[in-house]
Amino acid sequence: MTKFLHRKGLPSYLFPSIVSYTRYVKFQENSRKNRRESMLFLEHSPCLTGGIGAKAENLLVSPAHLSALGVELVTLPRGGDFTAHEPGQIVGYLHIDLKKRNLSLGDFLRALNQSLVVSIKETWDLSVEENPKAPGLYAVEAPKLKLVSEGIYAKSYFTSFGFALNGVNNLSTFSLINPCGAKSEDMTSLLRLGKDKDFPKKRRKFVEIFTEKFIDQLN
């Protein structure tokens, strides 16, 4: 684990290896209990997660089939439908005390999206935008394919979960679901957009830019 930024009481960590999803869930539960802020950036082994609004018909295969593929299925208290994680993504988890910072959830979400838009543009020269009818961020030039999935949980004025940016992952796990109620064909990645050159270096650059932009907007 690499701690690369610590400013104004908000430590941020970039993990060099894959972290299991269940390990993260335990971490965020403990963070909320102790109201301990942090930002984590990591990647997971193949898994599917479903939020409180997940619809059964958007899971396209049986749990037995998922088990045979080695894909974990996790039900979560966050917002959103089914989404997928797999190695090669940049997953960002944001644990922010909204009460302490006197922020509304709307303030938090605006800061998140604005920071992502700027960070993706500065790192990969790629324009993304929001879709008022669906969560996440979409590539403007792709045309409008989804690059970033988002799912935020705010309980007791403390946030957890966050976003997943498709990097050099092959998107195969998304074919097992209708991601966020859409089609797997509506997803894209930096790899598919031809933006995968020097990914490890660009991954760190993106995280550094994002943390700076995001922290600035929280204060």
TrEMBL record:
Residues reported in the UniProt entry to bind substrate: R78, G79, G80, D81, F82, T83, A84, H85, S149, E150, G151, G162, F163, A164
Q: Which Gene3D superfamilies match?
A: Bira Bifunctional Protein, Domain 2 (3.30.930.10)
Q: What residues does the record give for site: Lowers pKa of active site Cys?
A: K146
Which UniProt keyword terms apply here? Acyltransferase, Transferase
Q: Report which superkingdom the organism of origin falls in.
A: Bacteria
Q: Which residues does UniProt mark as catalytic?
A: C180 (acyl-thioester intermediate)
Catalytic activity, reaction form: octanoyl-[ACP] + L-lysyl-[protein] = N(6)-octanoyl-L-lysyl-[protein] + holo-[ACP] + H(+)
InterPro entries given for it?
aa-tRNA-synth_II/BPL/LPL, BPL_LPL_catalytic, Octanoyltransferase, Octanoyltransferase_CS
Record protein name field? Octanoyltransferase
Per the database record, which ranges form the BPL/LPL catalytic domain? 33-218
Q: Which organism is it from?
A: Leptospira harrisiae
Instruction: Give the EC number(s) under which this enzyme is classified.
Output: 2.3.1.181
Q: Where in this chain does the entry annotate a coiled-coil region?
A: none
* Pathways per UniProt: Protein modification; protein lipoylation via endogenous pathway; protein N(6)-(lipoyl)lysine from octanoyl-[acyl-carrier-protein]: step 1/2
